[in-house]
Amino acid sequence: MYHNILVPISFDTERDISGPLKLAELLGTPNAQITLLHVVEHIPAYAISYMPNDYLVETRVAIERELQTLADPLPNARAVVIEGHKGRSILDWAEENKPDLIIVASHRPGMQDLLLGSTATQIVRNAGCAIHVVR
After folding, report:
1. 117 pLDDT band (50/70/90 cuts)?
2. Residue 98 per-residue DSSP state
3. Cα separation of 27 and 110, whole Å?
4. What is the per-residue pLDDT for 51?
5. Please, how many CA atoms are within 13 Å of residue 25, restricted to the half-sphere of its CB?
6. How far apart (Å, rounded) are the C-alpha atoms in residues 80 and 38?
7. Is the distance from CB of 135 to CB of 107 less than 8 angstroms?
8. With 0-12 CB in 10 A as exposed, 13-18 as middle and 19+ as buried, what is 28?
9. pLDDT at position 114 over 60
10. How far apart are CA 6 and CA 37, in angstroms?
11. What span, in angstroms and rounded, lies between the C-alpha atoms of 117 and 20?
């Protein structure tokens, strides 16, 4: 049983997040802290000038609302949204907040994952705690 569980959440359409959420509830102690974490990737400077001024603010609010909706049914769960590169930012957050388990969803790897590496692979290779990969 784990006391501090991190569940990185990706809203990509091919990812099923129900499995990691159920697993966090099953593997946590009755008072476990469950953190649902979403990383908003930085938008390149050349692209940001083509977006409406309030785009980033509205997008972040919508993501926070959706993440909180996922957290609400789980006991002691909270939603956290940060900015940065997905893999590195998740690892940095984990190093700072010391979860004893990270539950990460993975999809079937494609050619881009074989060439560039995936977020799940980066977390598995570099995290300092237990990792559970859900496919």
Report:
1. very low
2. -
3. 30
4. 87
5. 11
6. 6
7. yes
8. buried
9. no
10. 7
11. 21
Measured between alpha carbons, how far is 8 from 36 in angstroms, rounded to an integer? 6
Among the ranges given (31-40, 46-55, 98-107, 122-131), the one the predictor scored with the smallest mean pLDDT:
46-55
Q: Where are the beta strands (DSSP E) in 20-125?
A: 28-40, 77-83, 101-105
pLDDT for residue 52: 86
Question: The tokens of 6 are what?
Answer: 């991190």
How many angstroms separate the CA atoms of 71 and 128, rounded? 24
Please give the sequence-ordered ranges of beta strands (E in DSSP) within 1-135, or none if there are none. 2-8, 28-40, 77-83, 101-105, 130-134
Mean pLDDT of 40-44: 88
In the chain, what is the straight-line distance between the N-terminal and C-terminal CA atoms, in Å?
21
Residue 124 near residue 131, CB atoms below 8 Å: yes
User: 117: how many CB neighbours lie within 10 A of its CB?
Assistant: 13
Question: Residue 70, by phi and psi: left (phi above 0), alpha (psi -120 to 50) or beta?
Answer: alpha
DSSP state of 13: T
